[in-house]
Design a protein that fits this description.
With 462 residues, the chain is an alpha+beta fold. The chain has 2 domains: 309 residues, 2-methylcitrate dehydratase PrpD (Orthogonal Bundle); 123 residues, 60s Ribosomal Protein L30, Chain: A. The chain has 19 helices and 6 strands. The protein has a 4-stranded mixed beta sheet. Strands 1-2 form a two-stranded antiparallel sheet. Strand 5 and strand 6 form a beta hairpin. Helix 2 packs across helix 5 and helix 8 packs antiparallel against helix 10. It is globular. This is MmgE/PrpD family protein. GO terms for molecular function: lyase activity. Belongs to the PrpD family. Pfam families: MmgE_PrpD_C, MmgE_PrpD_N.
Length: 462
């Protein structure tokens, strides 16, 4: 790395390189196992949908022919095709992990390329772990640096996520130092993900963002391995991401606090099957229902106050089709208030014209708060006020989400969540997936070959 000047991107590449082979703290190992379980949950949850068929078809068209890498709900493919398909499928349900400060989905861009390459052979569990941790570290540090201004216009899973995918793939392929830096720089030049797709109602294509991010990250790692150079100041340069893609976050996130625990430990595992921007109002409603036992018939009006950015991403007033349900605050709030729960079936097969649903939705007022926005993205404030027909008012404020690092899941609760979000999964598959993922928490298994069997993906055996 002596040929590259001491810039933040250099420091980040060195940090990622030096981490490989260093001891992994027990807490980080356990968090890695949880991240793996979350990824399998997300993939299984959507694997039987029509959308998953489309992503498998696109992957096969782009990367034709069979291969060794398992695909959720389908036949194995070449590693590149499997990575594309699995990244798309694992994001369909909007239940893959998230991050407050970076405002992206890190697991889908970090785990997907690492396991696709592992299926081709040559990776130990430890090398796969190093690759995944590097993907989280790079994507989250860069996402934090780019900030809320960037995330308002660009899907950071597609921008910072592409660089995270390159980090994961690069470490899995054995790239270090200068070569790894070039891989990240090549990926950065392909960063995309315009939110215009949401403005134009193309929500069914949102999963292309992580799919393309993983595709570009893998290609960047292959290119760097072949000796091709990449942008060095890909974030901080005059024509880098920060300046041209509306960056306004803390640039010290790129190379500061390198002694802190890995960024993997700061991720949110999602409690609700919808966009994470809507979680605090749902948590607040759940808190009110639990505390007061309020029934739908008692509710006269519902006032939801939320930070402004939430509706820039999840701004569907009322869904016209299932793909829009997870981006509609009025819909998810109305369903939760009516049923006391919000499940996959509410998102996949909604009865959008149901009289009771429309009546409840009509009582809901949604408004934004500049004061709440000032606390974003480190916090996600939302206040919910229920006005009852007897005149009583119930209200609560939530700033953190269930599943945030401050309110984490237990391993047992994560397994229950997996079954709830992936009802098609049988007991044998659930046990096998949990056992395989839990192996990443055991340092004694680091030397084992990392070859996830097709059965873990619900696909046909090879």
């Amino acid at each position: 790395m002596s040929q590259i000047p001491p810039i933040p991107e250099t420091t980040l590449a060195l940090h990622l390189s030096r981490r490989r082979g260093q001891p992994i703290a027990t807490a980080t190992r356990e968090r890695l196992a949880q991240a793996m379980l979350d990824w399998f949950t997300a993939g299984w949850s959507a694997s039987g949908t029509a959308a998953a068929d489309r992503y498998r078809r696109v992957a096969q068209d782009c990367h034709p022919g069979p291969g060794p890498a398992p695909v959720f709900g389908g036949a194995s493919m070449h590693s590149n095709g499997a990575a594309f398909a699995n990244a798309g499928i694992a994001h369909i349900r909007e239940i893959d992990d998230a991050h407050r400060a970076a405002m992206l989905h890190p697991g889908v861009v970090s785990i997907t390329p690492a396991l696709a390459l592992a299926a081709a052979g040559g990776l130990t569990r430890r090398l796969a772990a190093d690759a995944v941790i590097a993907g989280y570290e790079a994507s989250l540090r860069i996402g934090e640096a780019l900030g809320a201004g960037h995330a308002a216009g660009f899907h950071a899973t597609a921008t910072a996520g592409a660089i995270g995918a390159a980090a994961a793939a690069g470490v899995a392929l054995g790239l270090e130092g200068e070569r790894l830096h070039h891989a990240l720089g090549i990926a950065a030049t392909q960063a995309a993900g315009l939110w215009q797709m949401a403005d134009d109602g193309a929500h069914e294509s949102k999963s292309l963002h992580p799919a393309f991010a993983v595709r570009n990250g893998l290609a960047a790692a292959y290119a760097a391995r072949a000796g091709l150079p990449g942008a060095l100041r890909y974030v901080t340069g005059a024509r880098g991401l920060y300046r041209l893609l509306s960056g306004d976050g803390p640039l010290e996130a790129l190379d500061g606090g390198l002694d802190a625990p890995e960024r993997l430990n700061t991720v949110t595992i999602k409690a609700w099957p919808c966009c994470a921007q809507l979680f605090t109002p749902l948590d607040a409603i759940r808190d009110l229902l639990d505390a007061h036992g309020t029934t739908p018939g008692e509710i006269e009006a519902v006032d939801i106050e939320i930070y402004t950015h939430a509706l820039k991403i999840a701004g569907v007033d009322w869904p016209a089709r299932p793909a829009e349900t997870c981006f509609s605050l009025r819909y998810v709030a109305a369903r939760l208030l009516l049923a006391g729960k919000l499940g996959i079936e509410d998102m996949e097969a909604p009865d959008l014209g149901a009289a009771d649903l429309l009546a409840m939705a009509g009582r809901i007022t949604v408004r934004t708060s500049d004061a709440f926005q000032r606390e974003f993205p480190q916090l996600r404030p939302s206040r919910v006020t229920l006005t009852l027909k007897n005149g009583r008012k119930l209200d609560t404020l939530r700033k953190l989400r269930r599943g945030d690092p401050e309110d984490p899941y237990t391993w047992t609760a994560l397994q229950a969540r997996m079954r709830a979000f992936a009802p098609a999964m049988d007991d044998a598959a659930a046990r096998a997936i949990a056992a395989w993922c839990e192996g990443f928490a055991d340092a004694g298994r680091d030397g084992e070959v990392c070859a996830p069997p097709p059965a873990l993906f619900g696909g046909p055996a090879r």
